[in-house]
Amino acid sequence: MARKKLDTLTEQMYYVLLALTEERHGYGIMQDTAALTGGRVIIGAGTLYALLSRFEADGLIRLSAERDNRKYYRLTEEGRRVLEEELRRLQRQAADGERVLRGGGGA
């Protein structure tokens, strides 16, 4: 079965959207993600700018300002909906894993 557009997010996609719950520029997104994850998730510039372009085209983020030769972005309502749905999906996966690994049984 084909995957729906943005049915699931990669880890980098998730953290870019999470960072944009507040207005940030590209380098700020990379810094926020590294800090939030303790350096576990690093987003390179090429990946970041490809995601920003895609998310803007998909209506998940919007350009909110241009200052000091930097573009600032922020999550849209649709972006927040996608982010919240991904959080619920991850929570369901974690709950399933806990149930199986802690002896609650599987399918």
UniProtKB/TrEMBL annotation:
Highest taxon of source: Bacteria
Keywords, alphabetical: Coiled coil
Coiled coil regions, renumbered to chain: 73-100
Domain Transcription regulator PadR N-terminal residues, every copy: 18-85
SUPFAM superfamilies in UniProt: Winged helix' DNA-binding domain
InterPro entries per UniProt: Metal_resp_DNA-bind_regulator (IPR052509), Tscrpt_reg_PadR_N (IPR005149), WH-like_DNA-bd_sf (IPR036388), WH_DNA-bd_sf (IPR036390)
Protein name (database record): PadR family transcriptional regulator
Source organism of this protein record: Intestinimonas butyriciproducens
